[in-house]
Design a protein that fits this description.
Keywords: Zinc. The protein is α/β, with parallel strands linked by helices. It has eight helices and seven strands. The protein is globular, with a radius of gyration of 18 Å. Bound molecules: zinc ion.
Length: 275
């Protein structure tokens, strides 16, 4: 191990995205003494409101949603022992095609160069060795996730600082396993099918470069998700209970897209080649 402490930066779209795909690595690396920086790009104002009120429904007050989600994000960071939380506070753009896509201040409506400039500033300040974000489809096509991908890649390009960059992904085999467990607990989980608008989710197992075992941090990851229990899709995961959730979500997987270390793949550590 080198003297200089290592730094991990995760760039996410909404308050709660840090939990499912990177809750394990944030908890694990913090426990190993790595400085962890979470950058959350939007305020989550298009999420479910207090009492489960859906965006667009009467009584959905984006300001109240933002307040609630800010508190939830703080609680999640506490569960994961995140060292630094940085929020860019762009407006949540909502799902693709919603009127909120074009709202003033919406993340999707913000020039990439502008938001990437702000992220580049954070990269210069924290000098992360490893940066994690999404693939070019934002994993599942959400405009804010796509935009998070774009600004991350632009900011990495501009600064040249991170030694390694990763995109979160899910092995195709995990979707089958997930479907089986969900059916066991009585929840229908149709396996996602690829369409023209929506390429297939995840990657074939042999295209995944990096498998990080975070099963020892299942409790923290579950607590992070539970902090965001106001959002319907999280309630879905919480129904699994901590043990089954950890069994299913204990391995976090990534595709490595930038590397200056020469570490061989497949690897089991985002910091392989750096310590
Ligand atoms: Zn999101």
């Amino acid at each position: 191990m080198t003297d200089r402490s290592l730094t991990l930066m995760a760039v996410h779209a909404h308050p709660d995205d840090e939990a499912t795909s990177t809750g394990g690595i944030l908890a694990r690396y913090a426990a190993e003494g790595v400085t962890t920086v979470l950058v959350t790009c939007t305020d989550g104002g298009c999420g479910d409101g207090p009492g489960g009120i859906k965006p667009g429904d009467p009584g959905h007050d984006p300001k109240a949603v933002v307040e609630m989600r800010r508190a939830e994000l703080a609680a999640s960071c506490e569960a994961l022992k995140v060292t630094h939380l940085e929020t860019l506070d762009y407006g949540d753009s909502g799902m693709m095609g919603w009127a909120t896509n074009d709202a003033p201040g919406a993340f999707w409506n913000t020039p990439v160069a502008e938001a990437a400039g702000r992220l580049a500033e954070l990269i210069r300040r924290y000098r992360p060795d490893v940066v994690v974000s999404y693939d070019e489809n934002g994993f599942y096509g959400h405009p804010d996730h796509i935009q998070a991908h774009r600004i991350t890649m632009a900011a990495v390009e501009q600064t040249g600082i991170p030694a390694k960059v990763y995109w979160t992904t899910v092995p195709r085999s995990a979707f089958q396993q997930f479907g089986t467990v969900m059916r066991e607990i009585g929840v229908e989980f149709p396996e996602p099918e690829a369409t023209d608008e929506m390429p297939a989710l995840g990657l074939p197992d042999d295209e995944i470069t990096t498998w990080v075992d975070t099963s020892g941090y299942g409790g923290q990851k579950f607590a992070s998700l539970a902090a965001h229990a106001s959002q319907a899709e999280n309630i879905f995961f919480l129904r699994l209970g901590q043990e089954r959730f950890t069994e299913l979500m204990g391995m976090e997987t990534f595709v490595r897209v930038r590397d200056t270390t020469g570490a061989a793949t497949p690897e089991d550590d985002l910091f392989a080649g750096l310590r």
